[in-house]
Design a protein that fits this description.
By secondary structure, the protein is an alpha/beta fold. It is 46% helix and 15% strand. A 5-stranded parallel beta sheet has the order 2-1-3-4-5, sandwiched between helices. The longest helix has 27 residues.
Length: 170
């Protein structure tokens, strides 16, 4: 099975956050790979990965990093594939703001789509939506997923309606 999405993180300490992306892709039956590569500690491996990802069948890259979060941008500089950055609130970070600013402040020509701090699941949802543009089965599953979000809220409102208070009007 050839992976369509590559989840890359700067360190395995990012995995507890990135697991949500892996779970979503798995639930959507989208083949993916997970690797740790550091823009600062393994720059040659990062460049090699980015330059060869498309030839290996990768369609979207999700890149997560904390602190000085250069990994998504370094990958985006070496590939034409869409890169989705996930800023990680690392132990040494400034509540994740250093990471998000490192990822979103890319120069013209090197875009990185960026989700919220620790928003790994949203990165996988965005990757799925990108893949859905050219894959009818992924598009169908994405539509079902989106419908399920609304159904969860409808169910929540039904449960809230059962809660009684003296002055509650609904």
């Amino acid at each position: 099975m050839t992976p369509l999405v590559s989840i890359i993180m700067g360190s395995t300490s990012d995995y507890p956050v990135m697991e949500a992306a892996a779970k979503h892709l798995d639930e959507m039956d989208i083949p993916f790979e997970i690797n740790a590569l550091s823009a600062h500690r393994t720059p040659d491996l990062v460049a090699d990965f980015a330059k060869n990802a498309a030839a290996r069948g990768i369609k979207v890259i999700i890149a997560a990093a904390g602190g000085a979060a250069h990994l998504p941008g370094v990958i985006a500089a070496s590939t034409n594939l869409p890169v989705i950055g996930v800023p990680i609130k690392a132990g040494m970070s400034m509540d994740g703001w250093d990471s998000i600013l490192s990822i979103i402040q890319m120069p013209p020509g090197i875009p990185v789509a960026t989700v919220g701090i620790n928003a790994a699941k949203n990165s996988a949802i965005l990757a799925t939506q990108i893949l859905a543009l050219t894959d009818k089965e992924i598009a169908r599953k994405t539509e079902e997923f989106k419908k399920s979000l609304g159904q969860k809220i409808e169910k929540a409102n039904q449960e809230l309606a059962k809660i009684e208070f003296k002055n509650k009007t609904n």
